[in-house]
TrEMBL record, chains A, B:
Highest taxon listed in the record's lineage: Bacteria
Quaternary structure (record): Homodimer.
EC number(s) per entry: 6.1.1.21
Catalytic activity entry: tRNA(His) + L-histidine + ATP = L-histidyl-tRNA(His) + AMP + diphosphate + H(+)
The name this protein goes by in its record: Histidine--tRNA ligase
One Pfam family named in its UniProt record: tRNA-synt_His
Organism: Georgenia daeguensis
Keywords: Aminoacyl-tRNA synthetase, ATP-binding, Cytoplasm, Ligase, Nucleotide-binding, Protein biosynthesis
Catalytic EC class: ligase
NCBIfam families tied to this protein: hisS
Region described as Disordered: spans on this chain: 410-450
GO MF terms, alphabetically ordered: ligase activity
Family: Belongs to the class-II aminoacyl-tRNA synthetase family.
Length: 450, 450
């Protein structure tokens, strides 16, 4: 007898948690579609060679092998060996190249799928989780304004979820690189790697690291630290940077982009976006704006939505496809929502009405009532047995089904089992209150969140 | 440079195909929820021991291995070795056992997920595909009426899809077993295996097989063949069986169940369900009703939706969980819909309105229009560049976006680019025709299918 057991790192929800997850996924999809993003899905597997293009992530890949291959030579032939995708960016890049001839650019897509990472589960890391990505990709060129648009789409998407407010922190590769070059700090990537540790090792550790690892002079290290300390929500950020005295064309471009983003955000999503020049994560592969998102009051969760601008998502040798994209870690976010009780469903089943069965000979009568209700979009179920009505009501109550319907020879009646109110009703015209028709997701105070 | 290429057996759709797929998945979900089925998802992986419980399917399993395990001892330790699920029944059985204490029975669930089978792709078989399952599972008992209800839910779900009508063929294990036992044919499973080949090897081949492989006398073989030739849509099916002269308690029960199912179907889903007593596939593990579904005019596709009654979906040693379930092979069905052009979307992007940009300095004006439209649930996008209006209109046209919006200092105008009609409009109140708001799926004649 195989004993079932949960597998660490592979989360599953009970039906009530799934109602919340489905609500989250529906809300994300709706926002993305309102903004004109087309939904796509890619296969779960990619050739290993495709997955290893970035090299460093190789340790996270799950490889696949057919059971009957057992014993066959299984050295990884990267051309044929398949692995599960560990994000949605690598498959999307491959998909764009494969289908470029049939797409109209700029192409905006959203993609909500499971991804897998073969890491040892720890610190709440999942081995299987859902990501929700949006990207816009151009053919050879892609205007800067998408670097403003995409984080604001995500701000709107996240605002529609049953979660606390978010803060989107932004930086721009051009600002950091332009500044470092202006002060003569040549190892830009090295400097960014050290700056990324600021929260962990503090300013003195970073200064030492910049000198030891990135070849900075003590003065350059001090200036880089001053840059990293700057934050703000408007054009004053640029003034603070310029006050440090360094100038370069790249720095000017970067500051202009950063301020444009901040000003648009102040109008279209006030209070959400803040420039934070110590953000370095991702600056080594993004080429313009970068984004990180924290949940206010849950900063220990880390970034729940990250991304940035890349000048080459993919290239087929003739054309290059630049893009801007962000990705929400849905499962980790949802795990926090459920574990902290930030939101819950009004019920775990879709059913709004349980139709009682008087006796088994008359089950068809109850079936007809349910059919009439469903035909008008009211989720209905029929009692499993013609037990005493008290037992049938308890069946509904245990599932938080709000209404029980009693077919009768002299006319039907429907009972709101919460209030006990019972009244005559006709299956061809009766309507439940709008808030009872489908399960809703409510916050911990019981207020509707959507 | 890694050349992208499609992988045989791993289907992917372009955005227009995905609109049709999403429409299908939405329609299935809606029907299942109207009938009170709760949606769940299970992890993609199961321990190999769980996947191999049925033994015979072992050849289809994809095993997982982390890349950094490479070179480690990799004989399959069935306790730790993980494989991708090849259906949704095995994971559901495990999930029910694992969560039985927190579920209310009978428990009705639907589950729409990808599954994987490591077969060599051939005859249009997929290695990755989507299944849509419904099951009801009881604790220790489950009333017969669910064997009537579940195929009718599927009939309703399939009727809501952009596909031709379906025929659900049904049989009942009790009829076959009861009949065979009544005529003294003892090797019931053996006989069912032979009968299953009727379409392939014909009646003479089956008669020989029943004698050679199932130990039947020539007379028993002839009677079994007569049983298998019976079909019909009402109680006459039982009369035909009884006219063969054999009687047993099990046979009577089976015929009563079969007729009950047919009569309910004639009322609730007329013209859909037919009894076909030569159906043997699945009778070796189902214990009551079995179902197969063909698409009228596309019988060569095989069964698109199958299932049946099982007395033990799972057991924890104390409780046994009987169930009734059916599963739709969504990807195979969808591949046929797309390849035969049975349905297509009115457009491949969600966008109903493209807001033109007069010049880049006024992009924010266009952003505000789009925001106002989206706030009222109208999918809107903003033109990528402030090109000449003719070029912006072509951008919309290439994506079948029906409306282009022109912001103006003296008031805005909106153009239906199909008719060329242009009229003044206000972003706070203008409404597109209902059929243009979201992409719709239409049949090959252009008529709305939903």
């Amino acid at each position: 007898m195989v004993r079932p057991s949960s597998l660490s790192g592979f989360p599953e929800w009970l039906p009530d948690g799934r109602v919340v997850e489905q609500h989250v996924l529906d809300a994300l999809r709706r926002t993305f579609e309102l903004h004109g993003f087309a939904g796509i899905e890619t296969r779960a597997v990619e050739p290993l060679a495709q997955l290893l293009r970035k090299g460093e992530t190789s340790k996270e890949v799950y490889l696949l092998r057919r059971l009957q291959e057992e014993g066959e030579q299984d050295t990884a032939d990267a051309d044929k060996q398949l692995g599960l995708h560990f994000d949605l960016t690598v498959p999307f890049a491959r998909w764009v190249l494969e289908n470029a001839g049939q797409l109209a650019f700029p192409f905006k897509r959203y993609q909500i799928q499971k991804v897998w990472r073969g890491e040892r589960p720890q610190d709440g890391r999942f081995r299987e989780f859902t990501q929700a990505d949006i990207d816009v990709v151009g053919a050879d060129t892609l205007p800067f304004h998408y670097e403003v648009e995409l984080p604001l789409v995500m701000a709107e998407a996240l605002a529609a979820l049953p979660i606390p407010p978010v803060r989107i922190s932004v930086n721009n590769r051009k600002v950091a690189q332009g500044f470092y070059e202006a002060i003569g700090l040549e190892d830009v990537e090295g400097a960014l790697r050290v700056i990324d540790k600021l929260d962990k090792i503090g300013p003195e550790g970073v200064a030492r690291g910049l000198i030891d690892e990135a070849g900075a002079t003590p003065d350059q290290a001090a200036q880089a630290l001053e840059l990293a300390s700057i934050s703000g929500t408007d054009a004053s950020v640029a003034d603070q940077v310029l006050a440090l005295g360094a100038r370069s064309e790249l720095l000017d471009t970067g500051l202009q982009e950063l301020v444009t983003l901040l000003e648009a955000a102040r109008e279209l999503s006030p209070g959400t976006v803040v420039a934070d020049l110590k953000i370095a994560r991702g600056l080594d592969y993004y080429t313009g704006s970068v984004y990180e998102t924290t949940l206010v009051g849950h900063e220990n969760l880390g970034s729940i939505c990250s991304g940035g601008r890349y000048d080459s998502l993919a290239s087929d040798g003739k054309r290059t496809f630049p893009g801007v994209g962000l990705s929400i870690g849905v499962s980790r976010l949802l795990a926090r929502v459920l574990s902290d009780g930030l939101a819950e469903p009004t019920r775990a089943v879709p059913t709004a009405v349980l139709v009682a069965v008087t006796d088994e000979e008359h089950r068809r009568t109850s079936d007809r009532v349910a059919k009439a209700l469903r035909a008008r979009g009211i989720p209905a179920d029929v009692a499993p047995t013609a037990a005493k009505f008290g037992k049938q009501i308890r069946y509904a109550d245990r599932r938080s089904i709000p209404f029980v319907w009693f077919p009768g020879e002299d006319g039907d009646e429907v009972k709101d089992i919460r209030s006990g109110d019972q009244a005559p009703a006709d299956a061809g015209s009766w309507e439940p209150p709008a808030e009872d028709r489908w399960p809703r997701v409510v916050d911990s105070q019981g207020a509707g969140v959507r």
